[in-house]
């Protein structure tokens, strides 16, 4: 494996029923890989339940591999990811949500693909979410693909692997749920290579989603703002394609 270090980011807001299982599963998977170093970064985004307390206990049990950052108060999903990405130490950065709707063992299927790409984007083979959310997500993905010319079938899938160089170029401006689209749009603008792979998706068995219908309007506003910001900045520097590892 040409890459020897991975940081796995877990954003969490009121996930006391899920965070321990999510973190321990990642520890088990990453610990089983032939890596020189790895870490799990939990970002407790202003939770008002026991998420932060549980995360602190996990750090105390394994300080060599688990770190936690606490937001007080809640800053939003994008800010949680930004904190995780900014503080990641490794050559590769992986992220998934803390709701255990993905099988993190599938990260081993993403690793070979990152050797010839900058971003490996998972897409849900079959999505276990309420019908209203599926419809909203379908419309959102269509609008973003047309607006930013992103050739990715599942833009907001929370199962992605990045080379850390992506975040040397891409600065996250979003505050909430437009963050996946923003990162992919800016990555395309700067010439980063994206590949896709199907991943399994499972129903949420504990806790509840924080996505609400009123987030649609704020997300569309962010879409317009980010489009303007992307196209007002120069593509300075050489293309990342063809970089040596």
Model description:
It contains eight helices and seven strands. It has 245 residues and is of the alpha/beta class. Strand 2, helix 2 (51-61) and strand 3 (66-71) form a beta-alpha-beta unit. The radius of gyration is 17 Å and the shape is globular. The N and C termini lie close together (12 Å). Mean pLDDT is 87; it is low at 241-245.
End-to-end separation in angstroms reads: 12 Å
The assembly state of the depicted protein chains is single chain
Kindly report the average pLDDT value. Answer: 87
Instruction: Provide the low-confidence segments as ranges.
Output: 241-245
Beta-strand content estimate: 15-25%
What does this entry show, briefly?
The protein is of the alpha/beta class. Helices cover 36% and strands 18% of the residues. Mean pLDDT is 87; it is low at 241-245.
Question: Layout of SSEs?
Answer:
Layout lengths: L4 E8 L6 H13 L5 E9 L5 H11 L4 E6 L5 H11 L4 E5 L10 H4 L8 E6 L6 H18 L10 E5 L2 H4 L9 H11 L4 E6 L15 H16 L15
Parallel strand pairs: 1-2, 1-4, 2-3, 5-7
Antiparallel strand pairs: 4-6, 5-6
Helix pairs in contact: 7-8
What keywords describe this structure?
disordered C terminus, 8 helices, 36% helix, 7-stranded mixed sheet, 245 residues, alpha/beta
